[in-house]
Amino acid sequence: MPIRILPDHIASQIAAGEVIERPASVVKELVENALDAGSAAISIEVRAAGRALISVTDDGGGIPPDELGLAVSRHATSKLARAEDLFRITTLGFRGEALASIGSVSRMAVESRSADNTTGARLVVEGGKLGRQEPVGVPPGTHITVQDLFYNVPARLKFLKTDNTERRHIEALVTRYALAYPHVRWQLVVDGKPSLNTSGNGDRREVLSALYGLEVAKQMLAVDFKEEAYHIHGFISPISLTRSNRREITIFVNGRWVQNSAVTAAVLRAYHTLLMVGRYPIVTLFLDMPPEVVDVNVHPAKAEVRFREGDLVFTRVQRAVRRALLAYSPVPSLQPQPFWGLRQDGQPAAQGREVQLSAEIPMPGPAGETAPPARVQIHTGAEGGDQLPLLRLVGQVAATYLIAEGPDGLYLIDQHAAHERVLFEQLMAQQIEKRVPAQSLLEPVNVVLPPEKARLLEDQLPVLDDLGFEVEPFGPNTFTVRAIPALIVGGDPAAALNVLVEDFEEDESPLQSAVEARITARICKRMAVKGGQILSSAEQAALLRNLEACQSPRTCPHGRPTMIHLSADLLERQFGRRGAR
Ligand code: ADP
Ligand code: MG
Q: Which residues surround ligand 2, an ion (CB under 5 A)?
């Protein structure tokens, strides 16, 4: 065959094949356009998993009538003027090919009205052929319908999966965009039934509960990490909440949902050793960074990006997640303040999966009556100012918990978790000031390690020094421990050393501070008083005082709660003293 230039309609179909793979790709492109247009409300309707109909309506800036024909042409965009701009993209679209692609593989109708026009215009494109443009009376914004997707590309149709699968792709896409853009009011209707509704009030937790259910949403930990021009934020599951695959790790870069194996790896690294093998966290992370350091023009459907400072991104993501895991965790505290809402029957107050934040959890009242509802408030470390009020020690129960009274009710404290937290903060503070008091052992202890562990330990001797350990190599695979951190005197040095080595083995983090925090948390776990250990009154009082002095007193270094707070108000309501009937 001689070489020839492909006719336009074939070239368009080839181009469309790259961008529009399935119904969800159409939804993605239309939703991205609506977001780029600054919409406050976006409604999506699909029928027959998007094969029969996809319609997207927005209230954004709209398209002026004289640009409508251009909008549906290939390589026509309002978002990119010069080649240099390609390296600082701040919009979701930039190639000007989505509408053209969709129009070439479906029957598409675009109706749009820009704010400064009194009427709108309508243009139909069928299999790439433009119809006549007509004026229409429509509200400001854009309304696009896509019917009979792939009607002229039967081969493509054969590659589609079952309706269920295609529908899931669409729902996953819309819910994730709803999470990323909580200030937009989202509505998704599938085969005539509401599938997702958000209020657009900016509350990501609300969307999170639509996505994962209220129970999961309540438990998620907030990430909020800033360094230079990077802001890494979002939600991660505590170590108690896992999935069997990594599909629930969602990454947004500058507002764009992307797949990125390096970021996913960094997230998993942060959880490393905290999760069982084969378990994965639920994570939604938003990475915001200057547009110049991300190349978004590397994938036909814009589903991947490339970072200019890849190592930096990796380290920062790992640190952000790690920090949230170590320090921030929801503490169940029963307080009469609205935060999360449930209906009276305990179900999310929702039509479809809409969640309202106004309703309440019923608490069983006196004589089986339903008392006025108390509401569960979730404290996250991110709320800051998490310090405890002054507490009066009441005593120890079950040789495991301390009971204390504060100005705002009763505190039930887990002595082990609390002591872990105290040791952790004290040791970390000492490390930061590079003055960890070491205590020499009366008799040095020799510890023999397996060869590969011995090598790991050798590499880390300087770190140990910072931590207050004095350890020297002593013959093959043997080490002499001469001193340990004063704080953990009384613990077994050999056990402590073994804990350290386990840690090095599992953590190749380039980050010294992360290694130290993790090692410290491990040591503290070993060295803290255990449940079932009777403490003298003086020991109880000291533990309480030290806990009061902590910065994050409500969780142990591993993120579990150190205490349960029963507010005075809750107690009064529970006993029917106030507000009943
Ligand atoms: P791109 O988004 O890459 O620019 P598209 O083919 O998706 O390319 O859209 C072409 C142009 O049409 C956009 O640049 C924009 O000016 C206009 N447009 C498309 N959808 C909308 C919308 N929902 N609201 C306002 N303008 C839109
Ligand atoms: Mg676009």
A: 33, 93, 98
Residue 347 near residue 360 (C-beta atoms within 8 A) = no
Residue 103, ligand 1, Cβ within 6 A: no
If one counts every other C-beta atom within 10 angstroms of the C-beta of residue 74, the result is 20
Contacts for 348-353 with beta carbons within 8 Å, 24 or more apart? Answer: 348/209, 348/213, 348/214, 350/210, 351/194, 351/197, 352/193, 352/194, 352/195, 352/196, 352/197, 353/195, 353/196, 353/197, 353/210
Q: Which among 39, 55, 77 is the best mutation to test ligand 1's pocket, defined by most ligand atoms within 8 Å of the CB?
A: 77
> What is the pTM (predicted TM-score) of this model?
0.61
300 Cα–ligand 2 center, Å: 12
Query: From the CA of 73, which ligand is nearest?
Result: 1
Q: What are the tokens at 404? A: 């204390």
318 φ, ψ (degrees, to nearest 5): -60, -45
Residues 6+ apart with CB under 8 A from 281: 236, 237, 239, 241, 242, 243, 248, 249, 267, 268, 271, 275
What pLDDT digit, counting tens, does each position of 493-535 carry?
Answer: 776 776 666 655 554 444 455 666 767 777 787 778 888 889 9
